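As agreed, record passed on underneath.
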Amino acid sequence: MADRSSGRSRRDLPQELRDLAAWPQLDPSQLSPEVRDLVNRRQQAIRAYLEGGSLRSIHSECALSRTEIIRCLNRCLSLHQDGRIYGWRALLPYQHTRGYVRLKGPVTGSRGHAGAFLQFLRDHPEISQALDHAILTTKVADAVRESRYSHAEIYGHFRRLCRRARVSQTHYPLNTHDQGRRSVARYAREVLNAHFSKAAGRTGGPDARVRARVGLGKGSALMTELPFDLVSIDAHRLNFIGCIGVPTPGRVELLPIQRMQFLPVVEHYSTAVLGYHVAMAREPGALEVIKAARSALTPWTPRALSLSGQRYPEGAMMPSAALPEATGLCWNALLVDNASIHCAIDVAEGLRRSLGCALNFGPVRQWYRRPLVESLFSALERAGFLRLPNTTGTGSADPHRADAAANAVKYEMLMEEMLDLIDIVVCTYNGTRRESLGHASPLERLSDAVLGASSFWLPRKLPPLPPWMPEIGVTILSKTVRGDRKQGRRPYIQYAHVRYTNPILSSAYDLIGHEIRVHVNLDDLRAMKAFLPSGEEIGVLAASTGWGRSRHDATLRRNVLRAVREKKLAVAHGEDAIQSYLVLKAQQAIERRDAKRGRRHTVSPEATALARAVHVSGQSVPSVTPRPPGRPAAPLTRQTRATPAPSFVPQIRHRGVVK
């Protein structure tokens, strides 16, 4: 039998709660002998009761009353704040299984207010909800929040809520000595402790809120047990500043450039870096992501190191060199963040169709979804980049942070040498043994997985592409063939303000006014494949005039055309437009340096644009001659007329510009 007010008995106990082995356990080794004996007797009594023993026999064996046995059982079945039942933990003496609930009304004076504040909040639910909202969030309807969390602000908001609810100064808690200030602070701490994630964001900012979601003791939903199952890619701005050398008469001028963007492709099973790309830009674009993915599928060759003291350590290389069998292997899923470069059609659709992989876009600002690529950035910084004299440090509060631009010039940290260093550090990371991999290196773990793979692992290698299938980074467009037989203008197509043609297309007058399909490689716009609507190939179309000489991508062409449109650059017919742009940027960088001579070194946007153009085109930095101080730049004209035209020659206007 059981007391009516005691709650559950063994008769109505659910089956899932009868498994005592599943109850939260208790370690009695640290208890005193008296307490340990009491806990053991209570456990023995509950076990005997649930096994069907009578309360009379249990009372005689365990020296516990019938009411005490039923009370202990219900205490064990009480719900703990961690979401489980108390279990054996409830058998400890003086263990409270429920909070204190005040029944007596508030009193005046400085004593006897235990539980009064919670009672006040229960009597005023509108104040309780608004106060919880103010504690856990940063938005309040009737006030502008402070930049940082403070108990004083919360108390001020509580006073406004009391005035709105018409709580006078003669009522609790405003009639106490501190007018409820300590009660509000104590309640706010309890609310913050009960909502750790929100409290972290409230007191530490968005980064703390995201970090609070890690370390919950739960495994990741994205698990990999086979090689090339999951691959991550992300962009990271390297923490150092390099410089570029511009040859001038008598010396080479060193100009600081912006920090480089590093885009690695990390394989999850082995944590190896399959490939990477370095972008000379403030923010990388979709083309840089495609270049990084392409580098992970192509064989790696060591760089021709610029400095004689630099070398690759033994065993430092990329997976395609250490394991030729893994060259060109594709992955099943690619993990990216929600950055705009990853949402571009060329990335979202191009990579998915070309590689046959799924794209997994993680939640916004949730870096922990890609822990490997984030930990790689930290490891590379510690291994090499933060140890350079031209480092920018880990942040503005880094005590080792120095004048990175000045040190880059002082120690002649040239761009090519920085690219060599990046390749060496990445290859060294691949060949370094790690404790987390069982004291094996990423290359060794990947090699063991590929060469000793089980029978159910099927390597995914891209087959040779047919001529009509575009490669990675190649987009297909429809272009209208233009031309005029009467005016003798042969057929051509125009892409990005440049004409393209070849002997076959230039003779196909019947295609004028019709559309053809072209395969545009955004990484190299010097030429593109063309196909008829029926699918027949008509060959490779070459860029006209000087655009077909130097390698350039879509971004570099836009920069050149912008300089022409702003009348900063004039390109003669047949002249190499890219080489002219290099000369322009080199001259602008030198002029900017001369204008700030004597001041501290700063990053030069013109030098950064020059570095990117050199990196993309593969050309060398041109030699320029600085203009004397005070001499203005010569006006840019397409043709210089030695003598003025006769007055009877009419002026020709084209779009409002006199020619």
